[in-house]
């Protein structure tokens, strides 16, 4: 009867639609009913049910013919375990119409009984064989006591087994550690295999408790300098042991002045100096906002109003060179004070950094600060830019920074030797991806960068740039460590003989005010005079302490502003930018006499002082007279934007000096005075990044070969580092020198 029905069913299926429609409806319904009854009978066997196959496909389920082979294969696949089979079935299908084997062509699902006592098993797994290995399945447990697999088209061998694992040995999460005196470190036992199901207990012992003690839970306490070995032993198997060699080092020195006191003095000085915040106050604003000053303070509304007026006055165009950090910098600052950088007087600041090709023209600085900007708040992203040569994105910026890593770890604006400032800034930008799933390559690069910073740290606990220890270098490393959740007080990698970064940074603080760039008597690396109060050093020193304090208080990082509620900023009131009429750049004076103490300095009231590297371009630059400025490596590049160089057309440029005496000078690597007339200068920095030599303009006199090298390289480097145009800047400077040499010959 079944054979006859199948023949009739096939005949019906071979009819055309019109012919099928002509068949009596009662016959058609009966046909469908019988098909369903047959399908129900042949799609379920031994508690296993398949759905999704045609009505004529019969399910076959039988126990595996060689379960011993299955157990052997499972033991090899899961070493250290003793597999116990609960299910070991083979699944196949036939076409009842022909009796031939059938291979499912569409997606089918499978249901099978949950083994009795399954939930009390030690380490159960549901598997399918996959060539020479096994694939673990995660079926849904149904209320009717079955497992449900929604994708079983190719499933032919189903296994349910328990995998109790006996302990074969142990190891520790660290084989050796360096720990500072008085600190604690927790050691953890790693069982072998890690899937062990056997219960066991561990005892701990120290080879020298006068150097390092260990608790019953594996917590090591460093007592005094020296070395000891910590041994973990399995109580049930005394032959199973693991050891960790402990080196106890001198811990971080106690601070002579508290972080809170230094922050209080510095913030009071910043508020007293910057009474009418405007363009150039950016890093003061960010530091104070993230340092806890109420965002309801008039200080912040004043800055925003001036900035909104400035942006509207410039019609959103904040740079005519490659210094696109002008936008990134303001994104960070405005967000810190609760303003949405996507609507500042109607301007979306991200629009201007949505073309990666433009951002990259500034070298590493552009991508570093663009990545910090887009990650500073969870609501931010780069808008689509159809006209961009290269659409900007987080992924593109991360890849660019990874590709810029130096051999051996770390980053630099130029050359093959890692630079502490640039490495610190890069780590700040990459911090959101540290130990994040899917970004293992970023984590590895960060760890290499940290290793390089540990190697580069001076015995004083600080860091150097161009052979001279600077406050800003230390500040950038502190900010990087805190962004990564690393406490510089407790991480032995960043403590040298008791000296550590925060301790070093505070030695640059001048009581009752801000910070100096380099200490009295120190060498000059192109920044402010030694031992004098410096605006940029004050900015960076303060926000580095803010970053550290936020870490200690368990708050979000300096640039992680997910804790800030942002709102549309709106337009300014049109009353102006708050900038005063600028004055020409003053000629640098000689450095003051060295202060033997090296721990304090004089407030420079005579001239502005640039510091080693500017992160945002134009510094707030405030000494007691309000004068201190930028130089060197600048994130926005304003440090060398017509400030260090002027011609007859721009000697009174608005950028030369701004409100509150914010101004800049060029790099002077030899720390020697030089003469620059008001009408002419050595070089003019063009918008396209090229440099016009003094010889080409017919002006610019240098008194010695030494100064000639120093000045040409200094100006070339200032433009190159600030604007990311290392190649063209230095090349132009060298060409100018060669031409001059030839004429002399």
Structure description:
There is one protein chain. With 745 residues, the protein is of the alpha+beta class. It has 4 domains: 43-162, no CATH class; 169-249, Immunoglobulin-like (Sandwich), CATH 2.60.40; 259-570, Glycosyltransferase (Alpha/alpha barrel), CATH 1.50.10; 682-745, no CATH class. Strands 3, 4, 5, 7, 8 and 11 form a 6-stranded antiparallel β-sheet that branches. Residues 590-600, 627-650 have a biased composition (Low complexity).
Helix content, binned percent? 25-40%
The total tally of domains equals: 4
Could you please say which CATH topology of the largest domain applies here? Glycosyltransferase
Q: Class of the largest domain, according to the CATH hierarchy?
A: Mainly Alpha
Question: How much is the radius of gyration in Å?
Answer: 36 Å
How does the helix and strand content classify structurally? alpha+beta
| CATH architecture descriptor name of the largest domain | Alpha/alpha barrel
Major β-sheet annotation: 6 strands, antiparallel
| Poorly predicted residue ranges | 582-745
State the total count of DSSP E strands: 32
Characterize the overall form. flat
What's the helix count?
A: 19
The proportion of residues in beta strands is: 15-25%
> Roughly how many Å apart are the termini?
115 Å
Average pLDDT confidence is: 81
């Amino acid at each position: 009867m079944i054979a006859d029905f199948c023949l009739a069913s096939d005949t019906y299926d071979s009819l055309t639609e019109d012919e099928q429609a002509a068949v009596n409806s009662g016959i058609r319904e009966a046909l469908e009913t019988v098909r369903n009854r047959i399908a129900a009978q042949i799609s379920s066997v031994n508690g296993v049910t398949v759905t999704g196959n045609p009505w004529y496909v019969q399910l076959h389920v039988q126990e595996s013919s060689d379960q011993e082979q299955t157990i052997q294969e499972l033991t090899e696949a899961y070493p250290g375990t003793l597999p116990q089979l609960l299910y070991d079935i083979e699944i196949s299908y036939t076409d009842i119409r022909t009796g031939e084997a059938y291979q499912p062509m569409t997606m089918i699902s499978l249901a099978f009984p949950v083994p009795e006592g399954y939930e009390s098993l030690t380490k159960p797994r549901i598997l399918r064989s996959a060539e020479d290995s096994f694939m673990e399945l995660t079926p849904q447990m149904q209320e009717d006591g079955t497992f449900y697999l929604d994708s079983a088209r190719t499933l032919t061998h189903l296994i349910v087994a328990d995998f109790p694992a006996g302990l074969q040995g142990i190891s520790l999460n660290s084989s050796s550690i360096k720990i500072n005196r008085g600190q604690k470190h927790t050691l953890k036992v790693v069982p072998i295999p890690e899937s062990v199901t056997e219960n066991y207990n561990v005892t701990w012992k120290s080879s020298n408790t006068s150097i390092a003690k260990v608790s019953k839970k594996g917590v090591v306490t460093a007592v005094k300098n020296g070395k000891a070995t910590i041994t973990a032993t399995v109580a049930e198997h005394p032959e199973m042991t693991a050891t960790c060699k402990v080196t106890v080092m001198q811990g971080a020195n106690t601070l002579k002045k508290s972080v809170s006191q230094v922050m209080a003095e510095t913030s009071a000085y910043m508020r007293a100096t910057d009474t009418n915040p405007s363009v150039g106050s950016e890093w003061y604003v960010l530091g104070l906002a993230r340092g806890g000053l109420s965002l309801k303070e008039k200080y912040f509304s004043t800055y925003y109003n001036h900035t909104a007026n400035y942006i509207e006055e410039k019609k959103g165009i904040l740079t005519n060179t490659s210094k696109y950090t002008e936008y990134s910098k303001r994104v960070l600052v405005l967000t810190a004070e609760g303003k949405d950088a996507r609507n500042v007087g109607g301007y979306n600041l991200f629009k201007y950094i949505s073309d990666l090709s433009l951002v990259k023209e500034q070298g590493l600085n552009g991508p570093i600060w663009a990545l910090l900007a887009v990650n500073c708040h969870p609501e931010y992203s780069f808008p689509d830019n159809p006209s961009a040569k290269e659409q900007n994105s987080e992924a593109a910026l991360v890849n660019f920074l990874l590709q810029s890593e130096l051999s051996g770890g770390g980053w630099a604006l130029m050359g093959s030797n890692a630079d502490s400032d640039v490495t610190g800034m890069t780590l700040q930008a990459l911090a959101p991806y540290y130990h994040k799933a899917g970004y293992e390559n970023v984590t590895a690069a960060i760890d290499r960068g940290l290793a390089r910073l540990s190697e580069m740290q001076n015995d004083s606990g600080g860091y150097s740039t161009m052979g001279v220890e600077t406050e800003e270098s230390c500040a950038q490393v502190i900010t990087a460590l805190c962004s990564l959740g690393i406490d510089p007080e407790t991480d032995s990698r960043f403590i040298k003989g008791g000296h550590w970064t925060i301790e070093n940074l505070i030695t640059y603080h001048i009581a009752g005010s801000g910070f100096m760039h380099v200490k009295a008597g120190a060498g000059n690396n192109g920044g402010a005079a030694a031992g004098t109060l410096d605006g940029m050093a004050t900015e960076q020193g303060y926000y580095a302490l803010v970053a550290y304090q936020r870490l200690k208080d368990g708050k979000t990082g300096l640039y992680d502003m997910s804790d800030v509620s942002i709102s549309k900023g709106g337009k300014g009131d049109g009353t102006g930018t708050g900038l005063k009429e600028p004055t020409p750049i003053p000629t640098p004076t000689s450095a003051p006499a060295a202060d033997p103490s090296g721990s304090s300095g004089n407030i420079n009231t005579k001239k502005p002082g640039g510091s080693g590297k500017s992160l945002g371009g134009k510094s707030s630059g405030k000494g007691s007279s309000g004068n201190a400025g930028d130089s060197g490596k600048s994130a926005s590049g304003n440090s060398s934007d017509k400030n260090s160089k002027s011609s007859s057309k721009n000697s009174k440029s608005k950028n030369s000096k701004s409100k509150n005496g914010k101004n800049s000078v060029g790099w002077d690597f030899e720390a020697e005075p030089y003469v620059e007339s008001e009408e002419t200068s050595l070089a003019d920095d063009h918008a396209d990044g090229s440099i016009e030599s003094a010889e080409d303009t017919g002006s610019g006199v240098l008194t010695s070969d030494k100064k000639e090298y120093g000045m040409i390289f200094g100006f070339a480097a200032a433009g190159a580092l600030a604007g990311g145009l290392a190649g063209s800047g230095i090349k132009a400077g060298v060409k100018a020198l060669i031409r001059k040499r030839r004429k002399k010959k």
